[in-house]
Amino acid sequence: MDVTIIAVMVAYLIGLYIIGYWSYKKALKAPNFILEYFTASRELTGLVLALTTVTAYLSAGSFIGGPGTAYRLGYGWVLLAMTQLPTMWLTLGLIGKKIAIVARKAKAVTLVDILRVRYENNRLVTLIGAVAITLFMIAAITAQAIGGATIYEAATGLRYEIGLTIFFLTVIIYTTIGGYRAVAYTDILQGIVMIVGSTSIVVASIINAGGLENITRSLMNTNVGYVSPYGVGGGLNPLWVSSYFVLVGIGVVGLPYVSVKALTYKDSKSLHNAMIIGTIASAAMLLLMHLAGVFAAYYIPGLKRGDLAIPQLAITITHPVIAGMVLAAALSAILTTVDSQLILAASAVVKDIYMNYVNPRASEKSVKMLSFATTLVIGILSLLFSYKPPDLLVWINLYAIGGLESAFLVPLVLGLYWSKGNKYGAVASMLVGLASYIALYARYGTNVYNLHPVVYSIGFALVTYIVVSLITPKPSEDVRKLFF
Asked: How far apart are CA 338 and CA 335, in angstroms?
């Protein structure tokens, strides 16, 4: 393996450790450790907010798993991937301003904190939310770790297990010591790397092939499905593809590790700038990386694992420095999601459960130690689940995303905008959403009568929330004043 590729990746990792140490020093000096560790003291500017939100969502699924599926199915999967385009605008625009205002008034630090205050300190809402976050975060982190190890394997020739260990050590160390500030500011570095890497590999692919037309004609001659909106094999029917707009478009508003970013911005100007910058950045990276997955089918057909498409394409057609950047970009997409997921899972255990119900008077020292320990334990659990990877990690990643959306989307959005919603409706909605999603996914997989199961589970959760809220007592006057 070319030493230049490894050198580029090592330099990039060193940069992450430096930012992590700087964030650690900031956390030690902060007057409020919890606020600093879990929200960076609500100081994020527009650029930082944009990149940390985009990179939290554009994960291994967007840089490894998604392009790996495009490698197999063709341009039709690129169209499906672009249903994510309005994600940033919806997330920050729909809930960003209101959730931040309420969080400051209620001194809320986490998304579950917001739900706890909105639903009158109901323990079931808090516990269901915290448990759902922790369990699905372990599944999601596992998917990201698989992608990270795949990149190490392709770039260095190291065994998958060794790459997996290196990956976890990196992300756990800088996230654990630096908290949310380390997450946010490493995301700036990683966002830049992701943009440069995704642009470089697509440009190199088109130039080396003598133009986009040559790639497309060759793929069409191999299998016309590559250029069909229905994909190779014809499995991408319009109704099923449209349902992905719910999963990776509208539904993302309900992803705790994405929506929680709205608690951290500095002012309204920062929020508005983040919406514009984030939408442009995410659109570019989504399009470029999924196109690269299709281009890989032209250059390196016959890969047994689609998840190897991007690493192998980078190594095959680009200069070692560019290959290192591309691999670092894919690794960035993974690290930026895992660090957000780790800090969210830690906050669910420490803030939402321990500080609310186990030991409300916990000392700052014990909170610090528990925060560090929780992050470490969740990381280790995810590591253990990652040693036997599935063929395409995109599916486990999408499973975790759907589960979180089924639990949180309805009680979060309606809780912010419908004054009649109450704690009974929230509890029932979360339980119905989770149970129906898990049951449908277990029985039918990703296709339930030509729709993704998340469409049904969110629909069931919505109806349950409205019906139960209407037939049970209204929220208290205090809640109505705070939120409406």
From this structure: 5
